[in-house]
Design a protein that fits this description.
Distance between the termini: 39 Å
CATH architecture of the largest domain: 2-Layer Sandwich
Number of domains: 2
Radius of gyration: 21 Å
Largest sheet: 8 strands, mixed
CATH topology of the largest domain: D-Amino Acid Oxidase, Chain A, domain 2
Number of helices: 8
Strand order of the largest sheet: 3-4-2-12-13-14-11-16
Strand content: 25-35%
Number of strands: 19
Length: 318
């Protein structure tokens, strides 16, 4: 309708080890229960769908696609009628249950609203505390490092590993973009700042806040082996290539070209639990979106409707 570039590429979720087969079957059942057309594939059928991909078994989701999400966001912004203020650093929030909220930004501007919706991503827990609410979690930033595939012809669509339920990360996967390029990654390594897009970005106050959270140490004790592997893939291109070759044996280190990194706003509870689902909490005249798992863009419209429903309910209850 809006001429936004898009393509239905389909997606393969591939099991490369026997231990992954029960989890793959569970995904099949879950997909069918939710009305998603999924097809189970054997090794030969995997090769038919993706000639360079290897695995013991896979499921194919034919309705999965990609789009130019920058264009989607731009269209939503233009159509919303909202006043969008970029680079507005929130420094104080005053909330009155009978009136609403007043937000002060660093330049002295005050924005008032009858309901405050906090979707501050990497800073959502801090924003909740500014509003006077205890989020009961802490954002622990994890940087995801990516490469671009020098031979994009090796991959036709989207190729994902079977997710490990113990970790709310996707694992190294292959994603063909709408421009024809193929992204490879990410890993997941601790970031030394909330917006730590490289090892050289260190913010002591933010790092101190992460280290002072009891859940960070409990998480580290529980998952240190997994974390060590992720760190190894961060500092060693050969190790990263080895992880990619589980799905795509033809890839070589020379095929992986460095690309921009991202930072995941991972919610961690006090007991060290990595939150793996949407986490939304409410206070008087406030709705806090405290965890929005990847790929959040996929579910942006239905989740937006849910947040709007809660905001209207908060308004009606006051």
């Amino acid at each position: 309708e809006y001429d936004i570039p898009h393509a239905v590429t389909g997606k393969l979720i591939v099991a490369t080890e026997k231990a992954e087969l029960p989890r793959l079957h569970a995904l099949v059942q879950r997909g069918r229960e939710n009305g998603i057309p999924v097809r189970e594939l054997g090794p030969a059928q995997i090769t038919e769908a993706e000639p360079e991909v290897r695995g013991l078994a896979a499921i194919h989701v034919g309705t999965t696609g990609v789009c130019d999400y920058v264009a989607v966001a731009r269209q939503l912004a233009e159509a919303s009628g909202a006043d969008i203020r970029y680079g507005a650093d929130v420094v104080r929030i005053d909330r009155r249950p009978d009136l609403g909220a007043a937000v002060r930004t660093a330049d002295g501007t005050i924005v008032r609203g009858r309901v405050l919706v906090n979707c501050a991503g990497l800073h959502c827990d801090e924003t909740a505390r500014l509003a006077g609410d205890d989020p009961g979690m802490r954002i622990v930033p994890f940087r995801g490092e990516y490469f671009t595939l020098a031979r994009p012809e090796l991959v036709r669509g989207l190729v994902y590993p079977v997710p490990d339920p113990a970790f709310p990360f996707l694992g190294v996967h292959l994603t063909r973009g709408i421009d024809g390029s193929v992204h490879v990654g990410p890993n997941a390594v601790p970031a030394l700042a909330r917006e730590g897009y490289g090892w050289g970005v260190v913010r002591p106050r933010e790092l101190g806040a992460t280290l002072s959270w009891p859940g960070s140490w409990r998480m580290a004790r529980r998952h240190w082996r997994y974390g060590a592997g992720e760190l190894r893939r961060s500092v060693s291109k050969a190790a990263f290539t080895e992880a990619v070759r589980r799905l795509l044996p033809a890839v070589t280190p020379d095929d992986l070209l460095p690309a921009a990194a991202g930072v995941r706003a991972q919610a961690v509870l006090r007991d060290g639990t990595l939150v793996d689902d949407f986490l939304i909490k409410e206070g008087p005249r406030t709705v806090h979106v405290l965890n929005a798992p990847s790929p959040a863009a996929t579910a942006s419209l239905p989740i937006g409707r849910e947040v709007a429903r809660r905001a209207l309910a908060a308004l009606a209850a006051s």
